[in-house]
């Protein structure tokens, strides 16, 4: 019984890593599609998101079965419940990448974003990809330095998000209103992606240390 | 033991209803603060959100303890795991109301929103309040007609959200770029609030019927 249980936990852990890797790829390709108005790539991102959703369902079913069949206690129990939370965050990251791809499709054949903002968003997308990759590595290694790195990457993301609004408020901003809407939503999606990565990082930290720092949430 | 378990389930159910009620009040007051540039009311909403977060933590701890101590199976197990999901959705609805209050504070003493859009947002906010109140009632009664009503309310919310972008794209739209950003984010917050209400409605439906309709997710 114990052996089966360890195999279940292992499998859940691997599925989380797989989700994080797929989410990193999704953001990479979603950003690429948006920057280049590549509608075919956008379609692929949208299709791939269904796979991420499927992975989440599979993981959640396994976690619930494990709870039912193995009746885990203490740290194992928290690990499994934590996995349900982490899979929800990762699934949401996939949705946010999909939103970017949907924007590509909506504005095609035009580029959705004005060129003056593309540099900032490109940096934000790169930070998002780094965060998702770091989440995969953190889940694999449980090295808490990576969790701290993720929080630091997210601070940089937040600063860039704030700078977008400074740019939009500047007199030099000449984009029309629908483009301004696209810019604000894109910035919001890119920023939220990082927040979900931080949620996973905090959850892993909590599972490893048993300590939850609410001031850091 | 069985009695204790039923009491735990009852308590978790009541805490979910309490969260839904608090979230309905939060949206009501957040919208009021935004429409009237009432910064004191905004502060109260922001402070009250900490209580909603606290309720979520308390509920989650209880759910995890119940899993550990009672080792529930089958429908009871799914009910408790479902509660963890529902508490996360309700907590997020509280966050979205808080975002509106934060916008009030950020733009004070000005009103954040231009008058021509206020009517649409007021309707969206009323739908959000209705959705949150319906969620509380659904959790209490398990009457699945209410779940269907929530989905219908959310369709109306989505249509209003879409109409905001039509308004912003119109030549008659004269608001400056920062205001256009505020308008797009406000619309997004109001729309997401309803989505989370729908998530709870679907979860309750699933728990009652045992059937999950992925086409409806």
What's the level 1 CATH class of chain A? Answer: Mainly Alpha
Radius of gyration of chain A: 19 Å
Name of the CATH architecture of chain A: Up-down Bundle
Low-confidence stretches of chain A: none
Along the chain, the helix and strand elements of chain A come as: HHHHHH
Shape field of chain A: elongated
- Strand runs of chain A, count: 0
For the biggest sheet of chain A, the summary is: none
Keywords (chains A, B): Cytoplasm, Phosphate transport, Transport
Protein name (chains A, B): Phosphate-specific transport system accessory protein PhoU
Pfam families (chains A, B): PhoU (PF01895)
Subunit structure (chains A, B): Homodimer.
């Amino acid at each position: 019984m114990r052996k089966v249980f360890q195999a279940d936990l292992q499998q859940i852990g691997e599925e989380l890593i797989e989700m994080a890797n797929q989410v990193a790829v999704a953001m990479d390709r979603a950003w690429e599609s948006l920057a280049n108005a590549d509608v075919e790539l956008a379609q692929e991102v949208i299709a791939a998101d269904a796979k991420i959703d499927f992975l989440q369902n599979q993981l959640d079913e396994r976690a619930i079965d494990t709870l039912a069949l193995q009746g885990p206690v203490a740290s194992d129990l928290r690990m499994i419940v934590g996995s349900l939370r982490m899979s929800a965050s990762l699934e949401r990251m996939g949705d946010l990448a999909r939103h970017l791809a949907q924007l590509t499709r909506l504005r095609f054949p035009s580029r959705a974003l004005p060129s003056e903002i593309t540099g900032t968003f490109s940096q934000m997308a790169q930070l998002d990809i780094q965060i998702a990759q770091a989440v995969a590595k953190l889940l694999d290694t449980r090295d808490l330095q990576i969790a701290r790195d993720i929080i630091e990457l997210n601070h940089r993301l937040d600063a860039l998000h704030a700078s977008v609004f400074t740019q939009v408020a500047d007199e030099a901003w000449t984009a029309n209103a629908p483009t301004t809407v696209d810019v604000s939503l894109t910035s919001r999606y890119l920023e939220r992606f990082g927040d979900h990565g931080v949620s996973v990082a905090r959850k892993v930290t909590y599972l490893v240390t048993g300590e939850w720092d609410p001031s850091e949430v």
